[in-house]
Amino acid sequence: MLDLHTHILHGVDDGPETLDDSLALARSFVAAGVDTVAATPHVRDDYPTALDTMQARVAELQTALAAAGIPLDVRPGGEVAIDRLRPLDVDEQRGFGLGGETGYLLVEFPYYGWPLELATRVDELRERGLTPIIAHPERNPDLQASPMQLRPLVDAGALVQVTAASVDGRLGRRARKTAAALLELGLVHLLASDAHEPDSFRLSMRPALASLHDDGLTRWLTEDVPRAILAGETIAERPPQRTKHWLRRA
After folding, report:
1. Is 2-249 CATH 3.20.20.140?
2. How confident is the model over 189-218, as a mean pLDDT?
3. Average pLDDT, the chain
4. How far lies 45's CA from each of 12, 189, 219, in Å?
């Protein structure tokens, strides 16, 4: 299983404080059945992670993982706030891409308010040959009130990442209901943990996958799409949704 939204790097944002903490989080990922993660530190005003800092931390962690014998493949990345996109030049944007310069960039959707400039930023990224991946929009009250607001952005070429713990209700009823609506509308392209600490309440994706009751869809969300993103390849078509009975419980 792959997890392309994690805060596994130490000393850069609200994730682990020390390298040992990062290793503990890595062990938790392995125990949860994850073999590959993207390190996606915040890139925003309160955590203005620089590209070279992210790259150095990834290299340091990769070395430490090998020395500790922890079988976790850590790739570079970033979670870039919408208002930090324009200050970054195209090389920096690509450098923060999931897996490195893959052409896919994780963009943080705010927890409150609808970002009026989002459609413009999506268009700008697409013009630069970058595919934005909108992170955890189901946790935003404005989007919860009207999930269909994401449709124009997806039609414009954006992808959507939902937090796994939203799908099975660990992050509350409203996030679960919205995640279910987005899945039913075909507006979700991958699941990820957004984990910040070992043994965190929302780290494991298994409860979310079990709640879907659809092996083809879960494989697409956690294997097929993430692997295509890391390889910089076109994403395969979404498989037909076999069942919707789980949606009625949301």
Report:
1. yes
2. 91
3. 94
4. 12, 27, 35
